[in-house]
Amino acid sequence: MTAAPSTVTIRPLGTADPAAINTLLDEAFGVDRRRRTAYRIRDGMTALPALSFAAFDETERLIGSLQCWPVALDFQTPLVLVGPVAVVPDLQRGGVGRIMMTRMIEAAESTRADPLVLIGDPEYYGRFFGFEAHWTKDWSVPGPVERRRLLARVPEGLTLPATGHLGPRLHNPGL
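Structure for N-acetyltransferase YhbS, as requested:
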């Protein structure tokens, strides 16, 4: 691991080269990443431009990407699936992912986006971003998942159904 660059610029994901994004995702998660449950949950969906970001270093090299997807619980309760959150391997744990997550949450709050869900480390995403497994403990997903890693971040005053199946959203809003 190398420390994060002194300058990290966050821009909409659409400003990054799609081939560079795919290379980054392969480097961060492996070429078999498409077999993961998260890919099944968002199958057929288009990433939400207003909530998807790219991180660049001072040389304009792509060093991170964060994608968000329209999904739903039982095709009725709209949610946003966060991820993948990818950082080039030699910069992982250097703060780039946290910068992108902070930007995405700010954008989600300012646009009053639907509640956020993700599959990730509860100690990290809970501590820094308020995600918790309380909401998701009895949800089903289209593939294997460690129950403790299926997390949601719900705006104050909202609630989510206790049960249901998480999958693609019938209507893709394309925020």
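The mean pLDDT is 92.
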